[in-house]
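Entry 14. Structure prediction run on the chain below.
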Amino acid sequence: MHISILSSSIRTGRKSHNIALYFQHFLNENRLATVEILDLASYNFPLFESPLKYQPNPSRIALEFKSKIVASDGIIIVTPEYNGSIPASLKNAIDLLYEEWQGKPIAFSTASSGDFGGLQAITHLQFIFWKIGALCVSKNFPVSKVQEKFDEFGLPIDPQEMDEFAQIFIDNFLKCVEVSQK
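Output returned:
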């Protein structure tokens, strides 16, 4: 099973990327899947004027991103909540593709520096992916006060608490991925 973790923040000093690193470690250490982080900060996409399939000369990097999404058995999207929603970088990457998201199991992890862990961003993502026809996983992984929960390497400050929470989230996600493959 191959899982992609989409790290959506491109801001300097981003904290949500630490959660993506954490999930990469968690999945690898528990030998649950092969895993790859698709870091939107390293893709440096321009604002797209049209979906990839309508672009006459798509960039190599956009085609690479598409192939990685297609090759993924499931995707974990890790995003901060900005002003009650998702970052423009994530919406841009979502809108680049369409058919590639359809039927794909997608789980959401959100982060905020406040008390609510990005719950409004989860709502927006669920609606966007529902409209596209992706399989939105019911369990989410919101992280409030993210700056207090992980270091810059993705190591949790309280590993026991975080691993217990992650195990429930990942178990639910992987069951959805398995069902989608039947």
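The chain has a mean pLDDT of 94.
Filed with the rest of this week's runs.
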